[in-house]
Amino acid sequence: MNRTIVGIDVGTTKICTLVAEVHDTGKVNILGVGLTPSKGLDRGVVVNIDEAVGAIATSLEKAERLSGYRIGTAFVGIAGRHISSLNSRGVVAISRPDHEITRTDVARAVEAAQAIAIPTQREVIHVIPRAYIVDGHEGIRDPVGMAGYRLEVETHIVTGEVMAIQNLIKSVERAGVGIDDLVLQPLASGAAVLTEEDKNRGVVLVDIGGGTTDIAIFIGGGIWHTVVLPIGGSHFTNDLVYVLHTPHNTAEYLKLKYGSVDYPAEPLDPDDDTIDTDTFSPGERQQVSRQLLNEILQSRAEQLVEMIGAEIRRSGYEGLLPAGIVLTGGSAQLPGLEELTRDMLGMPVRLGVPTNLSGLAEAIDSPPYATAVGLVRWGLRHGLAVSQSGPQQAQHNWRQTYDRFKMWLREFLP
Length: 414
Ligand SMILES: Nc1ncnc2c1ncn2[C@@H]1O[C@H](COP(=O)(O)OP(=O)(O)OP(=O)(O)O)[C@@H](O)[C@H]1O
Ligand SMILES: [Mg+2]
Prior knowledge:
alpha/beta
């Protein structure tokens, strides 16, 4: 069966709306793409609603024009430093005479796992069951139909600050679209670039965007750890602005054209090493050393990779990740970053690109679009029904029409 699903990646650098026909096989046929520079966001969080609404509306219009679809609702990515996550266990007794575990028992166990103290200014974004334990037997993926006295569930719970969540919801709704669900960006990116084998064996997904670096650790097919670091490509660019005294646009251009973190140790011929570029004074030029440019990028990259390594160690799962690290997001394209990460962390590292795409896929099968592609994949796997896009537009208010409890029941029950 095919479903038309819309994903909106509200990134710090760009907004990307995808209208896609998603097949049960996982194949994603891109019908429309709406790409526009982001506005009103800082490190993954909406800081100016009017600007964000304008940019989201532009991206929606483009995607609608290209696809011929009227976008009613969409899956929307969320990130930012305000995100935090924890693992929680829920336990229930199976007291019926036959002791056969039903979907209702599973739902009760998941609800019990959610009975944790969440501060009033935070709310739950995801409650993801990972594995079940029946009478002490671990690692059960689907307990329905089994017999037992005691059912336990291990869940991964992601929370965020109410205000940051509300500002994102407001921005999307004011741009004229209802929200099918909010999805943590690294979970979406993981859905686009990781294989089942990666997730089963143990893997770290690292999405290095413009404003944030989003990390998700998968083991045994489930999600164990998520975190959003407030560093991304814009920090690399800003370092160039400060050290080289170049305007921001020039620094971004230099980074994309000449930037690398694997600059040869041997100095280049001076003719190859020098770049003629502008300064903050109109008409005034300066000579910039490529070696210096790349040393600046390298020191920022080393800081970022150290933070990624510290986060992996903090998770406690360091020894359980044979599939290593999959880097994605726009900044993962910085030449040499894969090798640097491999050398510094001593783990296998590869670049993750969205695959299994057709239609208008050409521009989309690259790292910056992992989140957008992952959102439509997530929509197929966890979505309630067909995204309400198409000729008839059905508006709905996310908060009013959504009962979160029912939602995760339908999302995750086996
Ligand atoms: N070839 C490249 N080399 C280095 N950096 C690159 C390259 N291509 C893109 N980038 C950087 O990638 C960043 C944008 O990445 P991406 O589109 O994934 O960000 P985003 O999703 O908008 O942001 P975020 O996820 O942080 O909110 C920019 O900082 C850009 O400079
Ligand atoms: Mg991103």
